[in-house]
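ugh ok so i messed up the first submission bc i forgot one of the chains. this is the corrected input, ALL of the components this time, i swear. 686 residues overall. if the numbers dont match what u have on ur side tell me asap before i send this to the collaborators (the ones from the other lab, u know who)
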Amino acid sequence: MNSASGAPRSGRVTIKQVAQRAGVSTASVSYVLSGRSGIAGRNGGVASETAVRIREAAEELGYAPDLAARKIRTGRTETILLSLTMLSDPWALAVIEAVQRRAMPLGITPMILADADWARVLKTHDADAMFIDAVADGQQGELEALARQGKKLVVFHEQIEPRGFEVIRSLAGPGCVLAMEHLLAKHQKIAILTTERARENRDPARFLPYLDGLRRAGLPLREEYLATFDRSPVSAYAAAMRLLDRPDRPTAIYATTDFAAMSAINAAQRLGITVGEDLDVVGVGNTLEGEAMAPSLTSVGPVGFFDELARILVERALGGSENSVTGGVVEFPWQLFIRDSAR
Amino acid sequence: MNSASGAPRSGRVTIKQVAQRAGVSTASVSYVLSGRSGIAGRNGGVASETAVRIREAAEELGYAPDLAARKIRTGRTETILLSLTMLSDPWALAVIEAVQRRAMPLGITPMILADADWARVLKTHDADAMFIDAVADGQQGELEALARQGKKLVVFHEQIEPRGFEVIRSLAGPGCVLAMEHLLAKHQKIAILTTERARENRDPARFLPYLDGLRRAGLPLREEYLATFDRSPVSAYAAAMRLLDRPDRPTAIYATTDFAAMSAINAAQRLGITVGEDLDVVGVGNTLEGEAMAPSLTSVGPVGFFDELARILVERALGGSENSVTGGVVEFPWQLFIRDSAR
DNA sequence: CTGTTAGCGCGTTCAA
DNA sequence: TTGAACGCGCTAACAG
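and heres the new structure output, hopefully the right one now
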């Protein structure tokens, strides 16, 4: 076929072949096909007619730039790497989708690494930004090493401190405080429905706000208003029953899980108690199931978390390599979503 | 810090810095750190002591090769790209896991592209092999274009013909034939539980084997033994009930879905019919749920599919670039797994 | 046997 | 608009 034209030893079409075909230098081709063609401040003054010819040649030859070669010069891969541990988790899918939406229009491709073992891969593979959703205990040093290598990391973690990398946190605590305040505005007899573990550990995010709320309001902590359950739906339902099936029952329930809150609502309905009137219920997690149930569940959850994560990731990916190597923390306080179960 | 030693303008440690620190040339470093150091036929004669010094230097500096730079010379990315459309599907997770297991020990990293729009990305991004799990109607040409670019593609599709790329098929048909034969060995009154769609289209894979089986056995097609359902579990359960809750009920059910087969078993149990004795049931899909239920479900499914897919992918990734650009078809006939629901 | 020199590959980008 | 250097690692050819 084309034995005299280019140099098609490899299947790949190079910039050189395009240049030859268009009758220009490789530099012009590069200017037109990648960087600014007719806009640039300095250079890039490529006659629009030449530009057209170049683009035609590229099209005809089916040229596509070799990103590896480009990367070596520019330092950019036009790629964002997402290291996700639990790919089956809807959470991971939400991350992917959000980043996808932000990045693709800018020509940045999100790639997923489905492996808890990011440390090994990220050492050699490059990306304009990397997201890591799980850091084991000993791995803190590896993060710092990667950061020193100039890698742009965004790490999802509740405690880790940023050392050259960005940290993003999803904080349930503030939202739980809001939930309690919401109930305290109208109620005095507020029960809690929580896990055994949260109570034992005095979980600062989900359990303590209950105690603090009562204390600040000058209300007593009543043992009989404290019900715990262990995972199973049955157990949560039973716990709610214990709470509600008594003469002096609470007028509000603060459940540390949406799922528990839903059980509580079911229990109440079973007892003929009208949720939203005789009983207010709030949950934690702001799940879709809670929002969909009747009455819709008032709950707390992170809002816009995925979008913000995507924004940060893309921002860091675009930021020049020498740029802000600050490494900060972005905290994501959960917020209250008032719905029918507790107006 | 190290202003006099290397050239650390960028955060990245290069082979040059390692060379300088070890007091050798970059060639030696390259030989030691990547290719064969003391084995090679020709060159590679690096004294083991020097090799140690080089490795130490690399270690101290935290050197990691730039894969992009390496790729440009070797043409290899040490990466396999998996374009997966339905990441939430267990099927996709199985693909990932299988490839992971095969590839990682060989130093090949699987990367996932969570985007139906592979055509755009794959044009510029490189990988030693690429897997595509979904091809839309118009996209056939794009596959060929990519193949011409020298890209190694493995495409999962039932009909597409290989043109420069590999095609892998998962064929339910043969398995369904086996399932019917299994039932025909012991039964004469065999019912089918299938979807409305499969019946209308006379699905060659899952529906026709039922008709053909009856015909070959010289059995009549009885309308009352043909029950259809539409998606919902409820619907499948009801259809099974219609089949079983009659005087002259079938002694075997061929269900075109594991999920429907499970509904049938439930229905039978509800009616006091002992599955595996009074009634044999086979499903299609060979899901884990079916295997786990009691009685365990006899079913047909692809065996070793994911492993084989992974093998092909890795093989193609390792194969030299000029190598077998054959492009063949690998068919994966489903097989019968006999369990308690139909011995 | 051990090690070095030098050029390559591809797209970018400066200086002319 | 272009020639040529450049970035990084690989590797053929060559020299102790």
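quick check: The mean pLDDT of chain B is 90. that seems consistent at least. Chain B is about 40% helix and 15% strand.
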